Amino acid sequence: MEWQRYLAGRGRGGASVGGYGGRGGYGGQPARGNYGNAKPAYPVARGPARAAPYQPRRPIQAHVPRAPRPYQPPVRRASPTPYQPRAQAPVVQPVLPQGGKGGYQATRPSARPIDNVHIYGQLERRLTDACHRYPKLALSPDFESVIHHWPTQGNLDIPLSVTIPFHTDPDLTLPVPEAEPEAADTEPKYIARVMLLSMVKEEEPADDKKKAPKPHMSKRIKFLVAKKANGGLMSIGGPHSPAKDGGDPTTDSAMIKTAIRHCKEICGIDLTPCKTWYKFCEIVYKRPSGAQDRTVVFVPDIWNHFAAGDPVKVYKQVNRQEVEVEEEVEVEIEVDDEEMKEGEEKEGEEKESKKVTKKIKKKVNTKKVVDNITVRSMDLSLNGILEYDMQDKHEETAELSLFAEAFDEMLSSKYAVQVLSILQAKKEKTDTQNAELKRKRDAENAERAQKLAAERDEREAKRKKMEEQKKEEAELKAQREEEEKNMTEEQIKERRAKEAEEKKLKDEEEKKAKEELMKKTREELEAKKKAEEEEKAKKEEEEKAKKTKTKVVTTTNVDDSILEPFSYFDKPTGHGGQQLGNLKRETVEGILHAMGTLCQREVDALLRGAGLPKEKSHISLYYKTLATTTTTTTIEVPIEEPKKEEPKSEETPEEGKDEAMQETKEETKEEAKEEEAAE
Fold first, then answer.
1. In whole angstroms, what is the distance from residue 635 CA to residue 314 CA?
2. Where are the beta strands (DSSP E) in 574-639?
3. Could you give the CA distance from residue 163 to residue 200 in angstroms, rounded to a whole number?
4. What pLDDT shows up at residue 391?
5. The CATH fold of domain 124-202+214-322+370-413
6. pLDDT tens digit sequence for 203-261
7. Which helix (DSSP H) or strand (DSSP E) does residue 129 occupy?
């Protein structure tokens, strides 16, 4: 029956058709054919379930209140970061891996020293080029271009060793000139400016003080600049006036007259004696009205017309105004004196009043002439002018900074030519030394090869000779053995004794010859040593006769013509920074590339000649070592005769003590005799 089979399956612990197993738990599998013999998927627990062991309950703990947390202010959100331009996107290049499937790999281009190099002497710089060259300079929105005229002036004869100090006296003032009617906005304006050059005087240190390092060239070069009361720094100058200056403002002669007039009005310096005027740079603006304004900067030759070392008086421009001010003044007034002197007062009498004069302070309004400084002049170093930033937004200040950049570029171009000539001379010297070294090395190698060949031939000859000797000895031995076959033992002994005697005589002769050779060599060495000693003694006698001796002196010389060009490019960083004394390879490479006349192969060859190979880009050029030369000379120095010491009497302590005791005894005897004579 079906239900009986079902019960039989449950009773035996097998799996039922419905899915529940026998006693003890779940997990049965459907029976296959025979319901009662089906095996469970995993062992089934049989028998009653065991009770869990007794575990006591945890005691109830009393509630402990937590300590209050200290107050913490809320965290403020950070301010948003300022906008920063995105970096250059990596160049994506297709790469084919070994598996055969195409892929992409991002690679960043490597920076080269030539990427940030600007060519010296470029005449015109448009807005984009100027922004790229001077990223910290705040240019005017109307700025169009800057034109450099100094490369077209030929060889600029600007001395950097003449000192012309400018003396600013607060009592020296000049009135503001009358204002001229302004021209229409549609008409172009021409402004002439002048830069007066000076140098800082080098102080010679005292003998007992250590020589201080010389400051950088950009800190020793100074210019006279002006500063407005309500503006920034500017170069001395102003706009062209047809009524006062005349001429065509597009010509240099008219602009020079304008510069002379404004310099005399602003700082009181007359530049009429200056005959040479270098047109240095020109700044062009494009105004909203369409007019094209131009500012031209000149450098006059004041070093030829002002005495070096004498101070030049510099005035300041003031605006004199009559203003009403309130001041305290002392005035005399008459008042009644009610105080009576003692002894003069009487009862019942009337008091007599007297008039007296008294001084009091009173505030009054007075008119006074006040000098308001509009423009004052000062001398500023080239390094100080170049320390500009984006906050200097005045057009006059930007023009001053552009001139400083042009002057710095002119000096860099001048010193770069000298650096090139120095490196070329160094390369020629290095090439000559390398060629001479190669010639000597080749000669040594040839001599060594010749010597090795001679030694090889000698060894080969010795080997052949030894082989021949061995062959002869073998033949003689075979012949002797053949002869000894027909000889008796006594004859053999006599023969061998005779051969031994001959060998002994031969060895003695060789030994004697060797001893004679050694004796001869020893005598030659002794004779040579004796001759050297005699020569040395002869020289010493000659030096004693001359009372002089020979001394080797080593002198170290520093060539300033080599030191100065490299030193200009070693610019100190920070306030009061000092020069490092070396230039990195990429810096020297950039200097050579900025000239615009050399290819990479020529630059690498020059740097290799100076000890800066391309394989060792981390090496720096120590230009002080390059400029230092050491020479060795021989001089005659007088011989100092040793001082003769006086002979000292050598007395032992005991002898001195005995002499003192003897003298004491003699004195005692004499005193005793005198006492007896007196008695």
1. 55
2. 583-584, 620-621, 628-638
3. 6
4. 86
5. Nucleoside Triphosphate Pyrophosphohydrolase (3.90.79)
6. 555 444 556 678 888 888 999 999 888 778 899 999 998 888 888 899 999 999 999 99
7. helix 127-133
